[in-house]
Amino acid sequence: AGVNGGISGATFFSIRELAVSPLLVATLPYESGREEGTVFENSRWSEIRTDRLSESAISGFFTGGILRGVTRNLRAVSSGAISAGVICTLLQYMYNESRIIRLKYLVHQRENSATSSRDNRASNSSIPWTERLLGIIGIKAVSDEEHLISLKQQRDAHLKRIAELENKREQKEKDVTG
């Protein structure tokens, strides 16, 4: 499965980056001013949503047809081309949507960080970053007194267990000698 995925991915991206993208940039007017894979600040959400959809569809179409034709027979080329083209287009669209979600989140974070940066600095400056990080995952800092109490409880439990084991050993020695 790993080798098949590697061959499919290498074929897809080779076709897309070496053949389809340069051909579309050279022939289509809307693609001519675009730098591949980049989104500018003045881009619209619709431009981000449709980024590289046509390239992925065409490359998926050719990749699916080639690989299906090589692994099966020539009659299976069309079904492989259509299904791979649709799948690659959907995957590219999902990737583009995830980029939009990420960008919206970053814009929201940037807006909130400007207003709350002063408040966070004042409240978080007394707490070390390691304690904040551990607090995020649910580990709380224990004071020295709490740690000492915990160690004393453990010591008492171990001493009690040692006393029990020594009593058992003495009973066995009495039974063996007696």
Overview of the structural elements:
With 178 residues, the protein is mainly α. The protein is built from 6 helices and no strands. The chain is elongated, with a radius of gyration of 32 Å. The N and C termini lie far apart (71 Å).
Largest sheet: none
The run of helices and strands is HHHHHH
Q: Average pLDDT, to the nearest integer?
A: 83
What is the number of beta strands? 0
- The global form is elongated
- How many H/I helices? 6
**Regions with little confidence, pLDDT below 50 for 5+ residues:** none
What radius of gyration results from the CA coordinates? 32 Å
Query: How widely separated are the two ends?
Result: 71 Å
Return the structural class: mainly alpha
Strand content: under 5%
Helical percent range? over 70%
Please provide a brief summary of the model.
The protein contains 6 helices and no strands. The chain is 79% helix and 0% strand.
Short descriptors:
single chain, 178 residues, mainly alpha, elongated
List the helices and strands and how they pair.
Elements: H1 2-27, H2 45-49, H3 53-71, H4 77-124, H5 129-136, H6 144-177
